[in-house]
Amino acid sequence: YPNPSSGEVHFLAEEHVYRVSLHSIQGLRLIEMPVNGVSGSIDVTAFPTGVYLLRLEAKSGAKTLKLLKK
Questions:
Q1: pLDDT tens readout for residues 6-31
Q2: In whole angstroms, what is the distance from residue 47 CA to residue 64 CA?
Q3: Strand 50-58 relative to strand 8-24: parallel, antiparallel, unpaired?
Q4: Is the pTM of this model over 0.85?
Q5: What strand order describes the sheet that includes 61-69?
C-alpha cells in the first residue's frame, strides 16, 4: 500500500518474507532486496509511470502482486 503509488510502497505479509523484488511488466527484474520479517517497503520513486510486478518470496512460496506507479 498505497497502490497506485508515486513513492514508497509498503507491504504486510501473512508470513515471514525473505526476499522482495520489483519487475517490469515484461518480466525484467528492476530491484531485488532481502527482507527479514512480515513487513517492509520498496521505493519506486525513480521508476516511470506504469504497471509493475511486486514479488514477495517466503518459505512456503512466492506471491506476485500488480503495482501501479503514478
A1: 999 999 999 999 999 999 999 999 99
A2: 18
A3: antiparallel
A4: yes
A5: 29-43, 8-24, 50-58, 61-69
* CA geometry: angle 35, 16, 41, nearest 5 deg: 40
The residue written with cell numbers 501473512 in the block is 14
What is residue 2's predicted lDDT score, i.e. its pLDDT?
Answer: 85
pLDDT at 1 over 90: no
Q: How many residues does the chain have?
A: 70
Which one-letter amino acid corresponds to residue 68? Answer: L
Distance CA 38, CA 60 (A): 13
Identify the three-state secondary structure at position 35: strand
Cross-strand bridge partners of residue 22: 31, 54
